[in-house]
Amino acid sequence: MTSGDRFNADHLGLSLTQAERLYFQMRLIREFETTLLDLFSQNAVFGTTHTCLGQEANAVAIMEALDRNIDTVWSNHRCHGHFLAYCGKVAELFAEIMGRELGVCAGRGGSQHICWHRFHSNGVQGGIVPLALGTAMAGKAEGAVTVVFLGDGTLGQGVVYECLNLAALWQLPVLFVLEDNGVAQTTPSELVFSGNAQARAEAFGLESAYSDTSEVMALHATASDLISRIRNGGSPCFWHIRSVRLGPHSKGDDTRSPEQMAALQQRDPVRLNERLVDTPLRLEQRCKTIIREALAQAEASPVNDGSLTA
Amino acid sequence: MAADDRIMFWGEDILDPYGGAFKVSRGLSKRFGERVLTTPISEAAIVGIAAGRAMRGLPTVVEIMFGDFVTLCADQIVNHATKLPWVYNNQVQVPLVIRTPMGGYRGYGATHSQSLEKMFCGVPGLTVLAVNSYTDPGALLREAFALETPVLFVEQKILYARFVDALPVAPEKPDVALVCYGTMVEFSVQAAHRLSQEEEVYCKVVPVQQIWPLDEMSLVRELQSAERVLVIEEGTNGYGFGGECARLLARLGKPMGFVAANPHPIPNSRVYEDRALPSVDRIVEKAIQLFEQT
Ligand SMILES: Cc1ncc(C[n+]2csc(CCOP(=O)(O)OP(=O)(O)O)c2C)c(N)n1
């Protein structure tokens, strides 16, 4: 990270109160993702994407509890919310997804392969988990923690269990976050999952926690508690969060019924947490402006056609 | 490890007094203590953890007990360790060395004798190095670290019983160049000796240590003076070292021949294994056939 390339304090709302900040970040992520889906539906963007609509509270609660300078985040295909809550780089994420030179990876990676400072994502289910253990090991001496995100469908990957064992055995400071939205692409978890996720982690000797809420303050309290325990004790933890996916898996590929979707709306974290702030409309306007300007900035950047770099 | 205290090394059964299935790491755990870790039989995880650690600038070596099991780390190698540096626009480097014994002639059967490196040759961002008995493996390992990329470091297991030897001096105008790596280098040296004694055919043995990516320029330079080229590899025929050499050398217009293992699993019976894998006899025979082509 160079001095000219810092966390975007403004887009992270660092000058706001904590409650305002968490709401603001969720709102910003929501605006980003809905704008992105619009762009895709207008064929203005090419390729694929996975939005985190409904899961924004997890991202902002966890990033708020991290030391962004030293801690590491490993995210998966559904990484935009995690990334924006980590660093606030809106234009750079738009540009990345659009394959532009301004992109965080100069447009080489795209929606699910992004990296900046100590944030990384990759699109192979479960494959990031060993890497997370590696960065946790590397950072242990400096008191750094690594967070790795998993979806419920990813509990089908064997390497996840190799890593639960090794994280506990080698006492690595890593937080496994299971964002359980109850569905993997189109498959409801009851068709592919047996037993209990927390019990699986505990069987390997990890401490575990469970949350079933979209309340961002409650999620943040748990995140802070778990992360400080990991930082101080140096051992891993597994956190099972029941969450909701309010959008399609990717783009226009939802097979769930309207009744089911209506029920899930009750858990919408942006609506639920609106009462935390006095001026939600003002923050919403602020987010819309940021998104509009960032998008314009991304669109002004040249497409990376491979002529600049090898 | 003595020169760089950031280096860690891990793998299955590598601790003293055992020192690894092939004793390569004997003495290391005694000497370097906590920098040497024994691991569960979790090949994907141990390679991925090493890659993650390496990504933070800490060089890491993993031993895969038998090369046959690199298939279990394929996702970590192909989709993570080698891919992320590029897709992240070089924001990370991965100084990772995966050491593993490949190869047959030991009667270990179909799942403990293969030369699977060709499955990884061609993977962008990966370097594949192979030890032979005519160069110092320690120097090659140092080169592997200097690359600061993921490296698959292939050690053919019968070489563990060898001392490093000097390569015989090559004739100035060789009739045939024998291009080879790993165990096939000593087979080629023996074949060259027989060809000169029995057939008055003079060969130059061209051992390759970096088998992926192949250095086209130096290969062409080595082969310039040779009339014919025979490429020898221990792995099975097809989509391998021979094919890659042919791709790079076709423009030279020299007659080329190829020696590789038969395309079926490696049999258990010693005689049958010897027949399935390349032999000195087969190299000699194929070298002579090259004269019939011209
Ligand atoms: C190893 C692997 N297999 C299949 C896929 C294709 N894929 C992408 S996302 C996804 C569903 C993942 O579900 P889950 O882990 O529950 O996360 P969610 O999408 O619900 O956030 C699948 C099957 C993949 N990316 N990686």
Automatic annotation (TrEMBL), chain A:
Residues 25-297 form the Dehydrogenase E1 component domain. Pfam families: E1_dh (PF00676). The keyword Oxidoreductase applies. InterPro entries: DH_E1, PDH_E1_Alpha_Subunit, THDP-binding. Its cofactor is thiamine diphosphate. Keywords: Oxidoreductase, Pyruvate, Thiamine pyrophosphate. GO terms for molecular function: oxidoreductase activity, acting on the aldehyde or oxo group of donors, disulfide as acceptor. The keyword Oxidoreductase applies. It comes from the Bacteria. Gene3D superfamilies: 3.40.50.970. SUPFAM superfamilies: Thiamin diphosphate-binding fold (THDP-binding). GO terms for biological process: pyruvate decarboxylation to acetyl-CoA. This is TPP-dependent pyruvate/acetoin dehydrogenase alpha subunit.
